[in-house]
Amino acid sequence: MRSFVNSDAGLSALTAAILVGGLGTRLRSMVSDRPKVLALVRRKPFLSYLLDQLAANGLKRVVLCCGYLGTQVRETFGDTYRDLDLVYSQEDTPLGTAGALRNAISSFESENILVMNGDSYCGADLASFYRWHLQKSAKVSLALVKMDDASRYGSVELDMDSRVMNFTEKNAIRKTGWINAGIYLLPKELLSNISLGCAVSLEKELLPAWAEQGFLCGFETDALFIDIGTPESYNLAESLLPE
To answer: Tell me: the pLDDT tens digits for 173-223?
Structure first.
């Protein structure tokens, strides 16, 4: 897998947010005593791979949006990791992915936020993603990876100008498609429109709405993608993630 290190000060000035509050119900048979992001891969918590990626790309501030067993995340990582300052936002009741971001909005120090799903890893060139986002003058961008079988994830359709036109739901038909890789760039101001304390899904509610409004763009990358949402994909992570 290619390794990318950012020299762009613009990216380093962004606040990153990682969504680490998932219940991980499908993984309970293998990881029952900790949140999914602390599942061990090569004897390291899965979350450490995401933090390593952010540190290698020069970011300095990461907000961890915690939920289920969130105190374990803080006990494991503390307030710093490599060159990263870690800030914790704990939800008292499940708020969904967008609701969790709204809950953490006061911790975001940049106008644009780099958001990552905590249960998946995409080795995308984050600096190139950010430059592309600025060059496109996109309001919201998401990273996309191509899968030979997109049936488990659902696929994303783009127009010729890289604007997202449609999200296809998960189905049993195996086919190649571009899927949401779980990395986003978005302005903090959009999160302020969410009512505080309301459960809102970024993937199911906001992204489709933003696509309809014509300001959601997709960045295509051939980078490694792996998630740990199921026992099968979790087992694959051991062999696919970098040492």
So the answer is: 778 999 999 999 999 999 999 999 999 999 999 999 999 999 999 999 999
Mean pLDDT value across the chain: 90
For residue 74, the tally of other CB atoms under 10 A from its CB is 14
The whole-model pTM stands at 0.93
Q: Which fold has domain 9-240?
A: Spore Coat Polysaccharide Biosynthesis Protein SpsA; Chain A (3.90.550)
**Which residue(s) pair with 178 in the sheet?**
146
CB atoms under 10 Å from CB of 159, counted, come to 12
Residue ranges covered by each domain of the chain = 9-240
Structure-token pair, residue 111: 């106008």
Q: What's the pLDDT tens digit per position in 21-71?
A: 876 576 666 667 788 899 999 999 999 999 999 999 999 999 999 998 899
Asked if residues 117 and 182 have their Cβ atoms less than 8 Å apart, the reply is yes
The DSSP secondary-structure symbol of 13 reads T
Q: How far apart are CA 109 and CA 140, in angstroms?
A: 18
Q: Are β-strands 140-147 and 177-187 bridged in parallel, bridged antiparallel, or unpaired?
A: antiparallel
108 contacts 186 by C-beta, under 8 angstroms: no
Kindly give, in sequence order, each residue whose CB lies less than 8 Å from that of residue 212, ignoring residues fewer than 6 positions away: none
